[in-house]
Amino acid sequence: MSDTPLRLTLRQLQAAYRDPMALATMIGVGIIAGITGPFSTFAHLAPAPRLFYWLLIALGTYGAGLVGAILAREWLLPPGKPVIALILVQGVGASIPVTACVVLISMMFFPDLSVTGLSLGELFVYCLLISLALMVVLEGVIAPQMKKRNVVAAPPAVEAPPILDRLPKPVRGKLSHMSMADHYVEVFTDRGKAMILMRLADAIAETRGTEGIQIHRSHWVALDAIAALKRLDGRPVVALVDGTELPVSRTHINAVRAALERK
Questions:
Q1: DSSP code for 139
Q2: Which residue in 178, 156, 180, 155 sits closest to 167, CA to CA?
Q3: How far apart are alpha carbons 215 and 221 in whole angstroms?
Q4: Which of 27, 185, 199, 258 registers the highest number of CB atoms within 10 A of its CB?
């Protein structure tokens, strides 16, 4: 089910108030404003009410602005528009509910809003300018940096070994090991096994993308599938994570030991 603008807004609003960093920022702004008392609040409110007032302003306007910005973007702006259009639409969209939030909270503390020294129009202009400035920072600086970081951090796509394309679809999975059986190669994965008519050397050539090693003229094993190298009746064998035990020839024993030490 695709997200509607309201569902998307609600989810992001919940995420914002659950984010410790976002909450810490809101509370920090509220405390600083509560101490300094801008817009005449220092003169008209005692310390405790002033601190409470600015905490409400910080917490309330953050959510109001987020709701307004997301709804404006989803309802008014088609995908793929330039950053400047995104900044303007979200900034204006955020400023309206932010202004309403400030007025409603202020009415709880100031019966006469004129004591703040701002008219409603002036208040809206302040909220608009602050909203636009925040959108410039968010969309012009933070968002590109986050995208760049995600691209750098994204792991490269792992190519599936070509040998898997030869297997029935129900058997295709994480490659475990392969063994010769007459003129066939028996390929084992974490989903089962299948027989393929080909030489083991050709099958090994198609395991690229999976780190493995030939342990015997008749056996090849993925390194991740090896649990231990041990001796059975005096002969070296590898024990696989699925419990299978396969012989290791003298020709390959040193290479197997070296590969397991690097694992």
A1: I
A2: 178
A3: 7
A4: 185
d(CA 254, CA 252): 6
With cut-offs at 50, 70 and 90, classify the pLDDT of residue 156.
Answer: low
DSSP state, residue 89: H
Split at pLDDT 50, 70, 90, the class of 2 is: very low
Torsion, CA 222, CA 227, CA 228, CA 229, rounded to 10: -20
Helix (H, G, I), strand (E, B) or coil at 211: coil
Phi and psi dihedrals of 195, rounded to 5?
-100, 135
DSSP calls for 27-66: HHHHHHHHHH-TTTHHHHS-HHHHHHHHHHHHHHHHHHHH
| CA pair distance 240, 225, nearest whole angstrom | 5
Which tokens in the block code for residue 224?
A: 């991740």
The Cα–Cα gap between 184 and 170 comes to 20
Residue 258, CA distances (Å) to 207, 219, 253 in order: 20, 17, 9
Average pLDDT over every residue of 209-233: 94
pTM: 0.54
List the structure tokens of 71: 């709804």
- The C-alpha atoms of residue 101 and residue 95 are separated, in whole angstroms, by 10
Compute the 3-state secondary structure of the chain and give helix, strand, coil in percent, each to the nearest 5.
60, 15, 25
Instruction: Determine contact, residues 186/193, Cβ cutoff 8 Å.
Output: yes
